[in-house]
Amino acid sequence: MRFTWKDAVAAVLVAAIVVPYVGYLVRGEMPFVQDPRGMAATGIAFGLVAALLAGRAAFDPGALIRTALGTGVPALGLGVAAAWTGYGYLLAAFVIAIVVTWALGTLIHTRALPPARTAGHVRQHV
Any stretches that span the bilayer, and where are they (predicted)? Predict the structure, then answer.
């Protein structure tokens, strides 16, 4: 499979999280982002839109899809925790988790990672 418009939009949304975060780290603030809580809220909003773009593909069976979803749920939790507390280390973990989730989802969707095979378990009777 190739890179689709949804993949491109998701990449732009993730960049819209990472670029202000890097600017925030360098300058201490960015337009519309003056503190870790604002950065976390921005990341949550853009991250949810990127997740909605995945649509049903995020819920198809398969070990790799479950892994991508398994990184997305903790990412959301980290984002909520960062927005709630304003702690910079939670914000950093949140941004990293978003990038990992996006990268894993993109690699799975574009089939750069091979699909998971479900091997049948054969019981041997002795």
Answer: 7-26, 38-56, 63-84, 90-108
Q: Of 16, 24, 15, give the one whose Cα is nearest residue 92.
A: 24
Helix (H, G, I), strand (E, B) or coil at 42: helix
The token pair that represents 5 in the structure block: 């418009």
Q: Measured between alpha carbons, how far is 43 from 13 in angstroms, rounded to an integer?
A: 9
Q: How far apart are CA 16 and CA 22, in angstroms?
A: 10
- Confidence (pTM): 0.78
Show Cβ contacts of residue 114 under 8 Å, excluding neighbours closer than 6 positions. Answer: none
| Contact criterion met (CB below 8 Å) for 21 and 99 | no
Nearest Cα to Cα of residue 48 among 85, 21, 73: 73
Helix, coil or strand: residue 124: coil
Quick one: how many helices (H) and strands (E) in the chain? Answer: 4, 0
- Residue range 16-53, pLDDT digits in tens: 999 989 988 888 777 777 788 989 999 999 988 888 87
What residue ranges do the domains of the chain occupy? 5-109
